[in-house]
Amino acid sequence: MTRQQELTDTLKQKFGFDSFKGNQKAIIENILAGRDTFVLMPTGGGKSLCYQLPAIMMDGTAIVISPLIALMKNQVDAMRRFANDDSIAHFLNSSLPRAAVESVKSDIMAGRTKLLYMAPESLNKLEYIEFLRNVTISFYAIDEAHCISEWGHDFRPEYRRIRPIINEIGEAPVIALTATATPKVQHDIQKTLGMNDATVFKSSFNRENLYYEIRPKTDNIEKEIIKFIKANPGKAGIIYCLSRKKVEELTATLLLNDINALAYHAGMDGSERSSNQDKFLMEDVNVIVATIAFGMGIDKPDVRYVIHYDIPKSLEGYYQETGRAGRDGGEGVCITFYSRKDLQKLEKFMQGKPVAEQEIGRQLLKETAAYAETTMCRRRFLLHYFGEKYNEDNCGNCDNCLNPKKQVEAQDLLCAVLETIIATKEKFKEDVIMDVLNGKESTDVTAYHLNDLEMFDSISGEESQLLPSVIRQATINGYIEKEIENYGVLKITEAGKKYLKHPTSFKVSKDNDFNEEQETAPQHSGGACAVDPTLFNMLKDLRKRVAKRLKLPPFVIFQDPSLEAMATTYPINIEELQNIPGVGVGKAQKFGQEFVDLIRTHVRENDIERPEDLRVRTVANKSKLKVSIIQSIDRKVALDDLADFNGIDFYELLDEIESIVNSGTKINIDYFLNEIMDQEHIDEIFDYFKNEAQTDNVQEALKELGENNYTEAEIRLVRIKFLSEIGN
Question: Which of 13, 123, 213, 578 is most solvent-facing, going by the fewest CB within 10 Å?
Answer without folding.
Answer: 13
